[in-house]
Amino acid sequence: MPLPVSDRLAIADLVHLYAAAVDDRRFDDVVELFTGTAELRLPEPPGRLDPVRRLHGAQGVRAAMSGLAAVTRTEHAIVGEVYAPGDDADHALGRITCIAHHWTVRGDAVTDVVWHLRYDDEYLRTSRGWRIHGRALTVNAIETPVVRRVRLPPATGRPAAAGP
Q1: Among 59, 149, 50, 52, which residue's Cα sits nearest to residue 104?
Q2: Beta bridge partners of 111
Q3: Please, which pLDDT band fits residue 148 given cuts at 50, 70 and 90?
Q4: Is 51:43 a contact under the CB 8 Å cutoff?
Q5: Topology of domain 5-152, per CATH?
Q6: Per the count of CB atoms within 10 A, which of 18, 74, 105, 157 is most buried?
Q7: Rounded to a whole number, what is the largest CA-CA distance in the chain?
């Protein structure tokens, strides 16, 4: 049985809110998009592209986001989304494909490390709506194209649910 349209839309919003909050560097908002007991399974690129490291809960999400502190700007382009029901009406699964740019500026040099990645997600309906309960990040490819310039991210205090 497919997911109800309202659930599918809410979960898609969650996925895009995650990308927007990461790109806006609102890492506290990112934490709020996960359940308190969420598990992140992460790769260790460039050596390991499959998820090999496990982080748990809000502290784990914060630790994962802290890895972006040295990156000037990111851009997560969601290029594919497939959702399916989970074991019951309060669980769902997702497979998200994404192209994630990670720009770093040092003096006049700009580096872009591009990850072509997949998130294998588990979602849980909570009293606050759908949240990410499990996420396995797999990097399918890494590239480093030449970049001339990057715009610095704007300062923002908007919450993740504030919209674009």
Answers
A1: 149
A2: 104, 146
A3: confident
A4: yes
A5: Nuclear Transport Factor 2; Chain: A, (3.10.450)
A6: 18
A7: 54
| Whole-number Cα distances in Å, 2 to 66, 87, 131 | 36, 12, 19
Whole-angstrom distance, CA of residue 61 vs CA of residue 140: 22
Neighbours of 61 (CB within 10 A): 24
Amino acid identity, residue 57?
G
Question: Rg for the chain (alpha carbons), in Å?
Answer: 16
Q: Are strands 34-44 and 129-143 parallel, antiparallel or unpaired?
A: parallel
How far apart (Å, rounded) are the C-alpha atoms in residues 44 and 53? 7
Any bridge partners for residue 40, and if so which? 55, 135
Tokens 């591009």 — which residue?
114
Amino acid 62: pLDDT? 98
pTM for this structure? 0.91
Residue with tokens 């310039």: 149
Residue 115 Cα to chain centre, angstroms: 12
Retrieve residue 1's tokens: 């049985």
